[in-house]
Automatic annotation (TrEMBL):
InterPro entries: FAD-bd_oxidored_4_C, FAD-bd_PCMH, FAD-bd_PCMH-like_sf, FAD-bd_PCMH_sub1, FAD-bd_PCMH_sub2, FAD-linked_Oxase-like_C, FAD-oxidored/transferase_4, Oxid_FAD_bind_N. Pfam families: FAD-oxidase_C (PF02913), FAD_binding_4 (PF01565). Residues 33-214 form the FAD-binding PCMH-type domain. This is FAD-binding oxidoreductase. Residues 456-491 are annotated as: Disordered. The keyword Flavoprotein applies. The keyword Plastid does not apply. It comes from Pigmentiphaga soli. Keywords: FAD, Flavoprotein. Belongs to the FAD-binding oxidoreductase/transferase type 4 family. PROSITE patterns: FAD_PCMH.
Amino acid sequence: MTLLAELAAAIGPDHVLAGPAGAPFLTDWRRRYTGRAAAVVRPASTAEVARVVGICLRHGAPMVPQGGNTGLAGGATPDDSGRAVVISLARMNRIRAVDPLNDTLVAEAGCVLQAVQDAARQAGRLFPLSLASEGSCTIGGNLSTNAGGTQVLRYGNARELALGLEVVTPDGEIWNGLRGLRKDNTGYHLRDLYLGAEGTLGIITAATLRLFPLPAAQCVALAALGTLDDALALLARARSGFDAALTAFEIMSGASLDVVVRAFPRQRVPLAPAPWYALLELSDSEGEAHARERFERVLTAALDDGVVRDVAIAESLAQGKALWHLRESISEAQAAEGKNIKHDIAVPTSAIPAFVAATDALLERWLPGVRHVTFGHLGDGNLHYNVSRPESMPEAGFLARQDQVYRLVHDSVQAHGGSISAEHGIGQLRRDELPRYKSPVEMALMRRLKQALDPRGLMNPGKVLPPPARFARPPGGDAGGPAKPDPRRPG
């Protein structure tokens, strides 16, 4: 039998899409990558996923797992060979179990994140992973990329929210590791191999997720700041004053909110213009009055001491949502202005002011008039350091310099002890940069893991790991501007 015939027999012909029917699955969310595939398959159970993997293995067909296709690094898009089978997990969308006494929920990989949040809330619990794409991203994709979001400061990344996994291995076997245990010291922790691996070591089909008590009240405030050093001082005060009740501390440049107001005139910043703003969220276990009293005490002291210029505390749920909407609209507003060069980086929180000052200056010297749209999760050191073209420069000319901008920013990240990907993953976007910023020992260990678990290299090939001999790791970098390209580097 042919590959397509076997797949149709295994999961039903209606769920094997070829030709134009599969086109929506072949382009990533940012429309940066478009591939080709032998077929797109939509299994409905873990057993069907295992059958699909077994068939692909026999035919030597590469496999590309896909969730909500909302990723930002091209990790769920096939290459252009037309040989791959895209395995969409969207039909695997059941909440299998909720255990409020154990504070766990078992969800299949195709469950939309918002559906998981709603199921937890119906049981009187909180699932705290929160992303702008939560209405369309899926839990399998969240775990495969170790998603972060706005509440990492209190609850951690997706890795910390998964107690157990169910995985189909590259040879079509099913590993059931869904035990809802906080303590399980029985050898290698296999779960951590698959979290953040972007489907290159196996396909996550379900997960046991950690739940938390619902807060009695949430309070949101926006603070205007003069400098990033002031933001760090406010963060220190908030941590000291609120401890674990501080669930979010977001930073936004004044320029980033200017972009939002230009794109969406109905949105308003309720404070006078400032170079920086911080968005704080407090989740209180006692009630709204108690939360507001704590907010007022800490923020009033910060005002009196000159740490912040002004503060607006939300008076209602609607006002709190409006403040969050400012933060969540930045990426969409940037897209409305045209294409930009995005960076999802992490540096130690204490190094953020120095990183931003140094990198802004380097870019300005190299590309005068460049615009910086910087925002992100200050509490955990993750910045979305986005770069927009000088107004006088055509978009095509700006995008032609993309590789040099990446190199300059990423070299600066490394110089400040950081990482070139904080929460979006490596995918295709950063794959070829990885050897420059990871040691040869790290790269060799990653390759050994890939070879051991996926010896035929069929599981999401071309993601995370570049071909072994394709890039050299140069000795150090050029601090004064973009490094010279490796002569072996294509393009």
